[in-house]
Design goal:
This protein is mainly α and 238 residues long. It has 9 helices and no strands. The protein has one domain. 68% of the residues lie in helices and 0% in strands. Helix 1 packs antiparallel against helix 5. The chain is globular.
């Protein structure tokens, strides 16, 4: 990626660091979480720097090693007792703030498009509207958790909509990559994710954003259920 200005990589490295930092803050500064994420990032950085992911003709595609492990880990959190306890202990206020990182991510994607490392369809000039999530996150944090003017339904709706926006760009990114199942952007495919530091987007930033939504929705739904049960109890007692 010789033609890419240094500031693009620097901004993305900084963005990844902020994402990890905010998530670790949401875990009440868990050293184990920070250690695991740091090791994972270093492993993927080393693989990318050696050109491991630039080989795209293997079966299955090597890029799946960026995506599948985080997804399996997230699934494990939801199906195990310790995992659910971990999820329920996360600070949803900080998880909401975490989504602000989606703003610099979108800027980086736009710069990558300008230098022909991703297609236009992956930017806010194309069909990627994920920047809306980042722009609205401060409002949701302030009015939802500081002023408490948004109810649980509104917070759930925002998380569901933003989760949909995330899924939208993930699908576009996968379909735009030069892989056997490519369906989009044949003239300017998504090749940035094969190189350091942008391998950190699918292997770390996106999974943490996804997990933040899912964990928040779980806590909101549990709180709503407890509130309904409590209301039913008092109504029956009356």
């Amino acid at each position: 990626m010789d033609k890419l200005p240094t500031y693009v990589s620097v901004v993305f490295i900084f963005t990844t660091g902020i994402t990890v930092l905010l998530f670790c803050m949401a875990t009440k500064k868990s050293r184990t979480t920070l250690l695991v994420l740091t090791i994972w990032l270093l492993i993927q950085a080393a693989a990318a720097l050696k050109g491991f992911y630039t080989t795209t003709y293997t079966t299955p595609p090597r890029v799946l090693l960026l995506i599948i492990p985080p997804l399996l880990f997230i699934a494990t959190l939801f199906v195990t007792r310790k995992g659910r306890k971990f999820l329920d202990g996360l600070d949803v206020k900080i998880l909401t703030v975490l989504h602000i990182v989606r703003i610099p991510v979108e800027l980086v994607l736009y710069w990558l498009f300008i230098y022909k490392y991703v297609p236009q369809i992956m930017t806010f000039e194309g069909k990627n509207f994920d920047i809306i999530s980042g722009l609205t996150a401060p409002l949701i944090f302030y009015f939802g958790y500081v002023r408490r003017q948004f109810n649980t339904g509104a917070l759930l709706a925002w998380n569901i909509i933003c989760l949909g926006l995330l899924i939208n760009i993930v699908v576009i990114a996968i379909m735009s990559a030069p892989l056997p199942f490519q369906k989009l952007a044949f003239d300017q495919p998504n090749i940035a994710i094969f190189y350091f530091p942008f391998v950190w987007l699918p292997c770390c930033v996106v999974p943490l954003v996804l997990l933040s939504h899912l964990a928040t929705m779980r806590q909101l739904l549990k709180g709503k259920k407890r509130s309904s049960l409590k209301k039913s109890f008092f109504n029956s007692g009356a």
